[in-house]
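User: You have something folded?
Assistant:
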Amino acid sequence: MKKKKPKVLIDAFHLYNALTGIKTYSVLLFEALANDESLSCDYVIYPDWKKATESQFLKGKLGFVKKLIHHGSFLLHKQLFLPAYALIKSADAVISLDFVLPKVKPGRKSFVVIHDVFFWEMKENYPNAWRKYFTGMIHQGIGRQTVLLSTSEYTSEKIRKFIPKQNPIEVVYQSPKLLNNLGEDDSTLQESGLVTGRYFFHVGLLDKRKNLLTLIRAFADYISKRPQSEMKLVLAGERGIGKAQDVYDQILLTIEELRIKQHVVMPGFVSNKALGTLYRNAFAYIFPSFDEGFGIPVLEAFHAGIPVIISDRGALEEVAGEAALVFSADDPGALCKHMISLEDDVVRQRFINLGAERLKSFSKEAFARNFDQVISKHMYL
């Protein structure tokens, strides 16, 4: 008789609010799991992840009332609705992709993805009361039968410092969005006055951790060495969430002070189709972050066929391997030198080729398969 698959409930509620890395992780995982019939577990996703992704009610900058609605609904969902639904579905395990598991966990196992340790390590970036409340929920949700999933070996090492319980930790690498499949958005370049191969690109929230002021200073240095250059810097993404993290005003001030306003384009949030267009037509992608638990734009840039420059922080080198140019995160001069080095066609093509080769280790199929293997292994321990 065919062995019955364990029924595993995955929480998707966070997609009502998620904007960046966790959203990408979750959507890619759900798409991959749906297209793989060889999986060892039967995955049930709650609530409907597509509807949650499409909803705009709790996304972006929230007013006081919407913040209350968000926090209240989050608490009710995690501690009441999710456990109740797990009981109704007779789930053998519950998985949270956004740090927080319910305190009461039906089923014999639970799994939680810890994407990074910024809430513990970068206290100054978050309101103190909110941070203590949120990290308290994370710790309360980790029980004796909880398995921690991380996005990189780098993150795994960090987790042990801030979550000292002896729960097993497993690494599952994720995959990039296949933005090349969405076609070109011709208006994206035209409306911003961009020319193919004539701009450096970065995408992400405009917050402190992304180290964008260093990138801007490096770019200003690059322009000063090439006063006739038509090269631009594109910073795509929304303002940082919360006053403590947001550096939008500082970015504008720095751009004015360095007199490079005509060279910088800030389109704000862009659709996936527009994002793919911006990647493919860029001269290079630059990722200057002070810390990253994974760094999905590295893979997205590899997939777009452009060279990548990364800082020496977080998991970026682990993800990129030897396929990216690396600079010290607090050294704009070193970053500028790498930007200049890519003007050599031989160097540029070398890193494009290395990126394409590195990308093979991060396919969507491998993401789903490795995720399933980890869940299945611990279901029978």
Remarks:
- The chain has two domains: 7-175+363-379, 179-361.
